[in-house]
Amino acid sequence: MHIGSFSLANNLFAAPMAGVTDRPFRQLCKQLGAGYAVSEMVTSRRDLWDSLKTSRRANHDGEPGPIAVQIAGTHPQDMAAAARYNIERGAQIIDINLGCPAKKVCNAWAGSALMQNEPLAIAIAQAVVAACAPLNVPVTLKMRTGWSAQNKNAVALACAFEQAGVQMLSVHGRTREQGYSGMAEYATVAQVKAAVKIPVVANGDIDSPEKARAVLAATGADAVMIGRAAQGRPWIFREVAHYLATGSHLAPPLVAEVTRLLLAHLDDHYQLYGEYTGVRSARKHIGWYVQGWPGGDGFRRHMNTLTNSAAQMQSLGAYLADLSQRMERIPAAQHRLAAQGNLSGSIDGQAATQPLSDLVMSV
Ligand SMILES: Cc1cc2nc3c(=O)[nH]c(=O)nc-3n(C[C@H](O)[C@H](O)[C@H](O)COP(=O)(O)O)c2cc1C
What we know:
This protein is an alpha/beta fold. Helix content is 44%, strand content 14%. The protein has helices at residues 23-31, 52-57, 76-88, 103-106, 118-132, 154-164, 187-195, 209-219, 236-246, 255-273, 275-290, 296-303, 309-326, 336-340, 356-361; strands at residues 2-3, 6-7, 12-14, 36-43, 68-72, 93-98, 139-146, 168-175, 200-203, 223-226. β7 (139-146), α6 and β8 form a beta-alpha-beta unit. The longest helix is centred in the C-terminal third of the chain and has 19 residues, at 255-273. Flavin mononucleotide binds next to β4.
């Protein structure tokens, strides 16, 4: 799989998730089998470029390439400037965000709201490509299936984006109107794939190796992108890779390995965010990790009372040491998402579920 001149390790992508897929988490996903990971979105607003939040989002220290930065905004020339700014800071691929329904983004008519304004969306793609092409930086774009059930314009837009020089499209199988409710559908993703020659990435509700394989087969997509199911389970990428290669399931990770990975993740996290913010933002990752593990709920509540990194590390280490006395591998319950078809950590708390039979029939 290629994006421009970049050859990717495989076709399993980590989805960009603001507040989640920071550099430490992306690195972990890549280490555990993701062939590609896009950064959290960076705004095109110049006044925010020097903010601590944006500088953390633009941090790629030690990250294996290609470095892909996602930009969000509403004005073609601002987006072009944002692309150049991020390229100067190490971006090797620029991704345009037309997929995120977050209010903060959509109130300003950015993200998936732009799908309603096709001329503006196309002008943005053209301006960003014009800024990136002379620097030999590929431009990719992430979108939804459309604005609403009555306005599924992903296919028309995909053709226009390809024409504008966009080199890869990721499609989340929901409309803007759906937010994260209901189920992702893949028929529109398949239509996009059939309509363009550039690589297409299928996204939405992929939470198990079986579902990844079914979505690839049903859509003909070149790659799959996994978001919420990787929260607290970054090893899902190697599980999917193993299943796609062999048709059999990889055993759950050893508690000893998970201990090493989680403590290293936390350490990296504190280094990026500093003590105060790091301790607070680490809580959600820890909560996702221990979800469904023995004593996990109580441990998560206890973790939320700790206010310094040393105590968090010590407490997590003790919890995992105790777990290792009881079991060699993390519980198979960690794979409950696949069994139930549910997703963890959905934004609005609504589980997105689709039986595989429906999935295949819906295409
Ligand atoms: C917490 C969170 C933050 C997100 N932030 C972004 C973002 O910055 N840019 C973007 O294009 N999509 C964003 N998304 C959407 C995801 O990339 C993905 O399209 C969506 O979660 C569906 O995939 P999934 O079902 O595998 O999670 C976000 C999703 C979540 C849950």
